[in-house]
Amino acid sequence: MTSGRRLSQAIAEGDGISVIAIVPDAASARAAEAQGAEAVAILAGVPGLRDATSLPVLSLGDEPPEDADACLLRVEDAEDDLESHQGDLTAAGFECVVDVHTEDELQLALERIEPEIFLISPRAADDDEEEIDRVLELLPDVPAGKLAIADLQSADRDTVAALERAGFDAVLVRSGSVGELVGAEPPSV
Questions:
Q1: 8 Å CB contact between 22 and 41
Q2: Is residue 34 part of a domain?
Q3: 120 and 173 in contact (C-beta within 8 Å)?
Q4: Does a structural domain hold residue 146?
Q5: Are 41 and 59 in contact (CB under 8 A)?
Q6: Residue 58 belongs to what domain range?
Q7: What does the pLDDT read at residue 125?
Q8: Distance CA 57, CA 156 (A)
């Protein structure tokens, strides 16, 4: 870890729900921080990222870059070797964010590695099921004291307010929508 700030700390402190912005470049990271994001997420290495922001960095890619603080551990990809993958990431200095999209994956993660942070994805949603409904359906299975991040491709202030009321600690969004989601004040709940 290079920033001295942990993702878990950034999304757990303060009032309200935190916004984690997916950024493609350093300028977007700088803008997301200025608009109130609590962390940024990247798909691959971003040149100049550490100079552009002091926020914690979550790597969403398969190979976490050196400047990431946290990275995803996808249960569906590492199911047979979950403990080993978590150990390798932790030994390398990364905070693990466990990506789940079904009740079975969530239970498996809890039984085998006891993660601190979950990314709840709507990937297993039925065709007629809204993304928000799927993530809200999985949230009650996350034990108290664990952090939950909603992974939604699109969100507006009403969606963020609903996630906050339900108990999510953070929402992962595209960088262009940070300002409108955070606004001058957090959404009223």
A1: yes
A2: yes
A3: no
A4: yes
A5: yes
A6: 7-177
A7: 57
A8: 23
* Whole-number pLDDT of residue 188: 42
- Tally of domains in the chain: 1
State the residue for tokens 């942070």.
Answer: 117
> Within a domain: residue 186?
no
How far does Cα 56 stand from its chain's mean position? 11
- Which residue positions in the chain have pLDDT lower than 50? 1-3, 184-189
Token representation of residue 21 = 């912005």
Alpha-carbon distance of 108 to 104, in angstroms, equals 6
Question: Given the structure tokens 């608009």, which residue do they identify?
Answer: 35
Residue 184 lies in a domain: no
> 128-133: which pairs have CB atoms within 8 A and are 24 or more residues apart?
132/159, 132/162, 132/163
State the pLDDT at residue 62: 84
Question: 5 burial class (0-12, 13-18, 19+ CB within 10 angstroms)?
Answer: middle
Q: What does the pLDDT read at residue 177?
A: 66
Looking at residue 72, which CATH number applies to its domain?
Answer: 3.20.20.70
Per-residue pLDDT, 57: 96
Half-sphere exposure of 146 (CA within 13 A, CB side): 21
Give, in order, the Cα–Cα distances in Å from 112 to each of 42, 60, 98, 107.
Answer: 27, 22, 12, 9
- Is the distance from CB of 50 to CB of 2 less than 8 angstroms? yes
